[in-house]
Amino acid sequence: MKVLVPVKRVIDYNVKVRVKADNSGVELANVKMAMNPFDEIAVEEALRLKEAGGADEVVAVSIGPTQNQETIRTALAMGADRGIHIEAPHEVEPLAVAKLLKEVVAREEPGLVFVGKQAIDDDCNQTGQMLAAILGWAQGTFVSGIEIRGDTAAVVREVDGGLEHLEVKMPAVVTVDLRLNEPRYASLPNIMKAKKKPLDSMSAGDLGVDIAPRLTITRVEEPPAREAGIKVSDVGELVDKLKNEAKVI
Amino acid sequence: MSILILADHDNGQLAAATLNTVTAATEIGGDIHVLVAGDASGEVAKAAAAIAGVSKVLTADAGTLSHGIAENIAPLIQSMAAGYSHLMAPATTTGKNIMPRVAALLDVMQVSDIIKVESADTFQRPIYAGNAIATVTSNESVKVVTVRSTAFEAAAAQGGSASIEAVDGGADSGLSSYVKSELSSSERPELTSAPIVISGGRGMQDGSNFAMLEKVADKLGAAVGASRAAVDAGFVPNDYQVGQTGKVVAPDLYVAVGISGAIQHLAGMKDSKVIVAINKDEEAPIFQVADFGLVADLFEAVPELEIKLD
After folding, report:
1. Which of A192, B3, B134, B186 is the most exposed place for a label (fewest CB within 10 A)?
2. What is the pLDDT of residues B238-292, one digit of tens each?
């Protein structure tokens, strides 16, 4: 079985994002970029499945400008076997990403797609569910545990009230949550090896998918700043302030 | 214009976030219908019909709808979509699971997690863990929207008298089946709607130390939350997590104990009205957003706080 892992290139999670002065977006020039942390967890899970004998190939796919090939190389350095880069000139919305991935799925015929539950840039939390929808596949979302049992996957989902266990029929799309695993670091020899691994490139047009945005972002702005408050000297003063000044207890 | 809201519920009780979603729909304007898709969820339908501003409740009752299985509920909503200008749901784990599937079936882009309605087609939503706010316009024929409940007041749970109408529940997709749930049970208020939240972080050192926070919570009628670090360390279950990828809370009072204040955590609580931070590290970033900061050893400060609340 093959596992397909879509990986998104985003601003590194440690970077403090800055809104552009003209309010057209956030500053991306000269900013450190990295693989979406949730997608790293997806890559890791695919690798573990392969190492346990449950998969025979892990294919990483990324959509975006040429620099996205670096993100694919990161997945290859972690241990993925092969990469596919879909060149796209602008931000691609989750619906169009799902349509592109559907075409990749048609060519690659994976048994599972592992993908991060959300990207930390647009925080949409849509792509996996949309891909499952247009493939007519089962979806296991926000997953913190997975076990393959023949042609079904037993998944544990992190839900608002706690945990939920589902059995999803394969092929399936699984969107992964934080506590599924801790991704490995790529070793230097593996980073070198990754440079020789196959990486196919194609354009969104090659796949016959219209990626024109459906939504228009008219303005991006800083959230209202929160003023730093005061330091209190002890618990007594804290309780007094909360009772008599803030009046919240 | 008419709006269909997917109710979040567990077949017995309507989740409070549904009420906030009704308010967001009211700001858009038009007839508001609520879909209760479930199994033997008659009480939920009655509760939905009593919400002020709701004109009709549609109930789809079937065994295949009992556990919010997206593969069964999404086609049901798709089949009902004609005639609605907006399909909405609270951005709970249920709404986040189902609505993108609905949007893709309808070939429209979803607008996730809105925090403000500017007009019927323009909304504000946080991006980059709330470090930027995007204004987004959708020209889709039907707008699929999820709503951040803390950004909207709750609609009045009483006062409405909507009609209740049954609709066909649709078939089983045969793709996913529910096995079981492991739900945390607590006598305390639900985290996302509690007026006061007290959360612990890595500084708590051990899960057993959360008992200190629980004692304070019980005196204040508060919910107990946690940072990702505390959940990852196994101190408390996942449903305690407040942050970018956990729950978003905006209580009247948020007390952060032993939490350093990573941006991913701040994303989940910085809209709280009053923030208190207790941390022994006076350089901790949490103090930059705290209204009242106490630099102290939490193992001394929290028990003292509990006593002083009497």
Report:
1. A192
2. 999 999 989 999 999 999 999 999 999 999 999 999 999 999 999 999 999 999 9
The CA distance from A33 to A117, in Å, is: 19
**Residue B182 one-letter amino acid:** E
E strands, chain B, are: 2-6, 31-38, 56-61, 86-90, 110-114, 116-119, 122-127, 132-138, 143-147, 163-167, 176-183, 196-200, 223-226, 253-257, 274-279, 292-295
- Asked, as a colleague might, if the bond just before A171 is cis with ω within 30 of 0, I would say yes
- Candidate from A126, A141, A163 with C-beta closest to B181: A163
Measure the CA–CA gap between A137 and B191, rounded to whole angstroms: 33
| Residue located via tokens 């969107």 | A175
Distance from CA of A246 to the nearest CA of B (A): 7
Residue B186 has a pLDDT of 86
Bridge partners of A175, per DSSP, are A115
Interface test with B, best of A126, A146, A176, A179 (most B CBs within 10 A): A126
Taking the whole predicted model, whether its pTM rises above 0.90 is answered as yes
* Backbone phi and psi for residue B63, each to the nearest 5 degrees, phi listed first: -60, -35
Helix, strand, coil abundance in chain B, percent, nearest 5: 30, 30, 40
Check residue B258 and give left, alpha or beta (phi > 0: left; psi -120 to 50: alpha).
left
Pairing state of beta strands A215-221 and B132-138?
A: antiparallel
| Side chain identity at residue A14, one-letter code | N
Cα B102 versus chain centre, distance:
19
Task: Quote the CA–CA distance of B41 and B55 in Å, as a whole number.
Answer: 19
Contact between B145 and A138 (Cβ < 8 Å): no
Q: Quick check: ipTM above 0.90?
A: yes
Query: What is the per-residue pLDDT for A225?
Result: 86
